[in-house]
Design brief:
The structure is a single chain. The protein is α/β, with parallel strands linked by helices. The protein is about 30% helix and about 25% strand. It has 12 helices and 18 strands. The strands form 3 sheets. Strands 1, 2, 3, 4, 5, 16, 17 and 18 form an 8-stranded mixed beta sheet that branches. An 8-stranded parallel beta sheet has the order 6-7-8-9-10-13-14-15.
Length: about 425
């Protein structure tokens, strides 16, 4: 691979880097960065990059690739293709596979399937065996095999004593526990956010308090047990944000993430009964959306993560109440974030990069890529201003369950570079 990006904007807030330069990459290494012309041979691809930005490769700490067990929805191969097509050079897959990621042999199987890929695939393992919320998984052994954090994602650890024991067990090595915060007794058979609208639509509602109860309980446990590391997955309500903000102000080691759909899509859209608008947590109100944006601006929300959750057409193409929860998001995440946050003057480009590339790695204690001569090229190259229309048939994910089909978005990934590989994004 030899490629020269001419007059590209290099942007990395971690390096305090923001300048226009020529960027030459040879065999996966940043060979030269220069504000003057770089001479290259005829084998080098030259890209006029005046409208493009190069940032550290995007990193999504919350995706579902379904393998092993549900390969008809997504495979590690198709998931990595989808990630690269959306500009991501790294992801963390969730443990709700079959078998569950709660044993070293499952971790090693996934490692082998993902090796030598452009996209670095890391794993979160279950807090409890088989994600049943009863017996703890062998966290120490799993961490020795490379697991980066622990979560029963897809379900919540609702037993307070089990969550206490998990915090205590994790404390010796300071593991991060993440929670899908949901009191399942309050959300049983839900279809959408609990509101006056869901009543009119005849849909069972999911009340905000079901998320907030678990967030508050877990933070109290984390504090009681010596300020343990705790992360709230896909936060979605104003109340949950308020709880996290107050805990951070007290010095609690709590962090959280938000999905693009929870800061861009209001719950009244479910009146269409489009099952690609059904997810867990459900779409919330405009007031909740405003709270997500405010929390991104003030740093209460640390990261943007997709919760990429593929489902096959035959699963989603049913009555709204019967459809599974979840949407794909890797290939629209950057564009949605730019459209709804940057272009509406909520976040700067630096802040977008922090939320999507830098902060997730810092939370997981992973090295943040540096845009420096001699370093491996781990880059996302995108046009922040290009307008385009989402066509779900172009998505590289195996499933096409996106709520953004035919949406006009502003901002588009162009190249994803990592591990001496380059992907030219097709959207």
């Amino acid at each position: 691979m030899k490629i020269l990006f001419k007059n590209i904007r290099l942007l990395n807030p971690e390096q305090n880097l923001d300048k226009i330069a020529n960027l030459l990459i040879i065999d996966g290494i940043i060979s030269k960065i220069s504000e003057t012309d770089i001479q290259v041979d005829n084998e080098t691809e030259v890209v006029n990059a005046e409208n493009l930005i190069a940032s550290p490769g995007l990193f999504d700490m919350h995706v579902h690739f379904r393998e092993p067990g549900y390969e008809y929805k997504e495979t590690i191969e198709s998931g990595c293709k989808s990630a690269a097509n959306g500009g991501f050079t790294g992801v963390v897959v969730m443990p709700n596979t079959n078998p569950t990621i709660d044993k070293p042999e499952v971790v090693e199987y996934i490692k082998q399937k993902a090796k030598d890929n452009l996209v670095e695939l890391l794993q979160a393992a279950a807090i409890t065996q088989n994600r049943e919320g009863k017996q703890l998984s062998p966290m120490y052994e799993l961490a020795d095999h490379g697991v980066v954090y622990f979560t029963d994602d897809g379900t919540s650890v609702t037993d307070s004593n089990v969550m206490r024991r998990a915090f205590e067990y994790a404390s010796a090595k300071d593991f991060m526990l993440a929670q899908h915060a949901e009191d399942h007794k309050l959300t049983e058979n839900f279809s959408a956010n609990e509101s006056e609208l869901t009543g009119k639509l005849g849909l069972k509602g999911y009340p905000n308090v079901a998320e907030e109860i678990i967030v508050a309980r877990d933070i109290m446990l984390a504090e009681f047990l010596g300020n343990r590391r705790y992360h709230v997955s896909h936060i979605s309500t104003r109340g949950a944000v308020r709880i996290v903000r107050a805990a951070k102000a007290r010095g609690t080691r709590v962090t959280c993430e938000v999905t693009p759909h929870h800061f861009s899509l209001p719950d009244d859209l479910v009146a269409s009964y489009n099952s690609d608008l059904k997810m867990n947590p459900p779409l919330r109100t405009n007031d909740d959306i405003d709270a997500m944006i405010d929390a991104l601006k003030d740093g209460t929300i640390d990261c943007i993560a997709t919760d990429h959750a593929p489902h096959s057409l035959h699963e989603k193409n049913v009555e709204f109440e019967k459809a599974p929860c979840g949407i794909v998001g890797l290939e629209t995440s950057l564009a949605v974030s730019l459209t709804y946050l940057y272009h509406q003057n909520h976040l700067t480009l630096n802040q977008i990069i922090e939320k999507m590339a830098i902060n997730p790695r810092k939370l997981l204690r992973i090295e943040v890529p540096s845009i420096s001569e001699g370093n491996s090229a781990n880059l996302t190259i995108f046009n922040p201003n290009e307008e385009w229309s989402v066509n779900k048939e172009k998505l590289m994910t195996k499933s096409k369950n996106t709520p953004y089909n035919k949406y006009q978005l502003k901002g588009k990934p162009y190249f994803t570079i990592n591990n001496n590989k380059i992907h030219k994004c097709v959207l």
